[in-house]
Amino acid sequence: MTKELIHLQNISKSFDGQLILDDLDLTIHENEFVTLLGPSGCGKTTTLRIIGGFETPDKGKVIFDGQDITHLAPNKRNLNTVFQKYALFTHMSIAENIAFGLRIRKKPQSYINDKIKYALKLVGLSGFEDRTPDSLSGGQQQRIAIARAIVNEPRVLLLDEPLGALDLKLRQDMQYELIRLKNELGITFIYVTHDQEEALTMSDTVVVMNQGYIQQIGSPEKIYNEPENAFVADFIGDSNIVDGIMLEDRLVEIFGVKFPCVDTGFGRNKPVDVVIRPEDVILTENSSDELQGEVTHIIFKGVHYEMEVTARGYEWLVQSTKMYPVGTKVGISVDPFNIQIMNKPASEDEEAAPIDG
């Protein structure tokens, strides 16, 4: 594991009496691409602003490379921020925009000129020095905002939903561009988004947040394949989340049908949440020993068909390369390794609260 760079220690923050972050503790390592992911109001942007120095926590500390920077001004921190609204200066040329921070730091003109050329080449916009921001597309403006940040050689780049205003194709292109920049520059990226696909595509580490708490931290693969609670499972991609009874170790009952699984330690005859991804549902025809259902809706998605299957009053979402016409009677089965068992939260507060460990 690389060196610890940022540690948020027991951070709490309220606005107008409303608790936004509650005793949040998070460690970020050098050269890591970390994404803070969650719905609107979960506290992810507030967390980013506290790291950047634009907000001060009510309690807790921000430790940067071993130093307490909780009350340090934003311009004194070795990091830069790229916002969703790129905040380019429309009365300045692209070169002047990129050079702005360097001029404040009183760098010599020859150094500034070299940095402008380097940054524009890095973001694929060489020769744009004399253009103005309003002559550029949204994607080009976004690249200039990144170029303006990286010329200052920050150790950390903070990105607050910087791709939100772009169309889908350009957003996907910029995702790969950001991965390339991160690898080439060797700096730490902290990225805020509510877009699950963006988080899974770009990140080394995903931090899933809800109602001011961290729900789960892990690699994109672990977050997707091994969600720690129903909120994470539901928020990251599509999921079937159904009520089940854990009859005993490795055996769960769903809608009265027994399904082998690999989970243990839940006790006997205990109510649980069962999470099954749509691509893991196996449909079979003319099967009598499985959960029975009927295909009620179908959409062709290009690489697969997306079907809704009604079984015992529940609408199962199923993704498969094999198409079953509407009205087909089917059996539902799942590989035991693709069934995720979770404890049911005792209350709404417990549902929002973080998982222990």
Write the layout of secondary structure elements.
Blueprint: E1 4-15, E2 18-29, E3 33-37, H1 44-52, E4 59-64, E5 67-68, E6 79-82, H2 94-104, H3 109-122, H4 138-150, E7 156-160, H5 168-185, E8 188-193, H6 196-202, E9 205-210, E10 213-218, H7 220-225, H8 230-235, E11 240-248, E12 251-254, E13 257-260, E14 270-276, E15 281-285, E16 291-300, E17 305-311, E18 314-320, E19 329-334, E20 340-343, H9 348-352
Parallel strand pairs: 3-8, 3-9, 6-7, 7-8
Antiparallel strand pairs: 1-2, 1-4, 4-5, 9-10, 11-12, 11-14, 12-13, 14-20, 15-19, 16-17, 16-19, 17-18
Helix pairs in contact: 2-3, 2-4, 3-4
What this model shows, in words?
With 357 residues, the chain is of the alpha+beta class. It has 2 domains: 4-225, Rossmann fold, CATH 3.40.50; 238-352, OB fold (Dihydrolipoamide Acetyltransferase, E2P). It contains 9 helices and 20 strands. The protein has helices at 44-52, 94-104, 109-122, 138-150, 168-185, 196-202, 220-225, 230-235, 348-352; strands spanning 4-15, 18-29, 33-37, 59-64, 67-68, 79-82, 156-160, 188-193, 205-210, 213-218, 240-248, 251-254, 257-260, 270-276, 281-285, 291-300, 305-311, 314-320, 329-334, 340-343. Strands 6-7-8-3-9-10 form a 6-stranded mixed β-sheet, with helices on both faces. A hairpin with a 2-residue loop joins strand 4 and strand 5 (67-68). Helix 2 runs parallel beside helix 4. It is elongated and about 80 Å long.
What's a concise summary of this model?
With 357 residues, this protein is α+β, with helices and mostly antiparallel strands. Helix content is 25%, strand content 36%.
